[in-house]
What does this fold into?
Amino acid sequence: MKKLALFDLDHTLLPIDSDHEWGEFLVRLGAVDAVEFARRNDAFYAQYQAGTIDPVEYLEFSLGTLATFPRAKLDHMRAQFMTEVVVPNIRPAALALLKQHQDAGDLVAIVTATNHFVTEPIARALGVEHLIAAMPELDAQGNVTGRLIGTPTQGKGKITHTEAWLAKMGKTFADFESVHFYSDSHNDLPLMSLVSHPVATNANATLKTHATAQGWQLIELFND
It folds into this structure.
């Protein structure tokens, strides 16, 4: 594998934010206090869009929510979430882009700030073997404790975690002829600025302005 292709997940490969949608799903199920949870979930989402979110604070909120349910209940809700929310939002254009890199023999990975519990089945549904995501701590029974292992996979943290993932394979970014990174968000500018082929994908306004000024490639996989 001479080339590396990295993908953000939310609003890049999916036209939704899976983390925010998971929270909305819990509200619809009645699994959390609707008013208070929705207020905090929406506030964090607005902070993320503005680039002002504290990733540790948010992950403590999201992982703390997971910790309130036994693992069997969590797994059942996650399967329902995949069926009702995620799978209907998997688009042919995203699958085709992934397949293009996979068929070329590139090493493909999703690098997301969303936690591993929510995103693991999404990566599997997209046909991507490698997932770099915020890791929740699990107890001996597999229940989520509410604590984060290591540091968040956001901003510069995406570089740190991707480098650690590559190191486990005895590789660095320099070992690849080219490195693509597809993202919709200015929150990913640290990693986008590092790779040889940054691709602004369904870019938000801030990223689109920056990408245009830098002469980066811009693509649209969907319009919603």
